[in-house]
Amino acid sequence: MKRTADLPRHPPPVVGFADSYASGFVDGSHAHDRGQLSVFLAGSVTISTQSGSFVPRAGQGMWIPAGTVHQAACRTGLTFQVIYIDPGLAGPDLPCKMFDVSSLMRGLVDEIIAMRFEFAMDDRMSAIARLLVDEIGRAPRIAERLLLPTDHRLRRVCEAITARPGDCRDIDHWAREAGMARRTFTRLFQREMGMGFAAWRRRVRVIEGASRIAAGQSVAEVAFDLGYDNAGSFSTMFHRTFGVTPRALRFGSSPVLHPADE
After folding, report:
1. Residue limits of the HTH araC/xylS-type domain (predicted)?
2. Where are the alpha helices (DSSP H) in the chain?
3. Domains along the sequence of the chain with CATH
4. Which strand (E) or helix (H) includes residue 37?
5. pLDDT tens-digit map of 152-163
6. CB 57 within 8 A of CB 214
């Protein structure tokens, strides 16, 4: 079984499958009547919700509550597992979040996928489902999320920048794009986002850089693509944000934003 459309009309309360998407594939805005757990095995993807964008990597997972509108855009070929969980099991208290997938969670996901969808929720499967939901709830959230504003003028600007993070046009240009005076733009941006425009754009670039490096691009190539004068200045900003160097990421370290950058 592959793709959500292949689910039976009345699946068990937990059901899942392994899947893959080609580079460049976009799964447009949609929502599910169940909570969705995605476990990413290889590749890079941007998942966007109405409140922000996430860039999970291999070894990480993402929980999307039932009814949450989201979109996935694959930067490279993507291999992943997905589990759909009935709201009666997951409840309303699990927020949308990205996290590192524990070995226990991997085992539970593998067990559910191995059952395909023709199984009864006996005591064993019920225990597996409850334990998986508990693991999702316990998993520490990775704060590598790119917040988006609610004001439609600011959001238009932010979406343009996330589409082209290497764009170096200055704040005066973006204020004009939003139809605002520079002072109005900066004040509204700070109030909506809790940070200045320059700090937000730096975050866009380092999160984009982390995704590209994890996908195999060189640090120098990423730095120049994102508008930095040299790889050293990019590496400095990357380390300041994530607490590890870009080189460490290439060799398997999983960066987490410092609380001060929240």
Report:
1. 155-252
2. 87-90, 103-114, 123-138, 152-163, 171-177, 182-193, 197-214, 219-225, 231-242, 246-250
3. 4-138 (2.60.120.280), 145-261 (1.10.10.60)
4. strand 35-42
5. 999 899 888 887
6. yes
Q: Indicate if the pLDDT at residue 253 is higher than 70.
A: no
For residue 54, what are the β-bridge partners? 47, 145
Per residue in 40-65, pLDDT (tens digit) is 998 878 888 877 778 787 889 999 99
Q: What is the pTM of this model?
A: 0.67
Residue 53 corresponds to which tokens in the numbers above?
Answer: 């964008």
Residue 168's Cα: distance from chain center in Å? Answer: 24
Please tell me the distance from the alpha carbon of residue 154 to that of residue 208, in angstroms, as a whole number.
20
What's the rounded Cα separation, in Å, for the pair 183 and 158? 17
At 105, give phi and psi (nearest 5°).
-65, -40
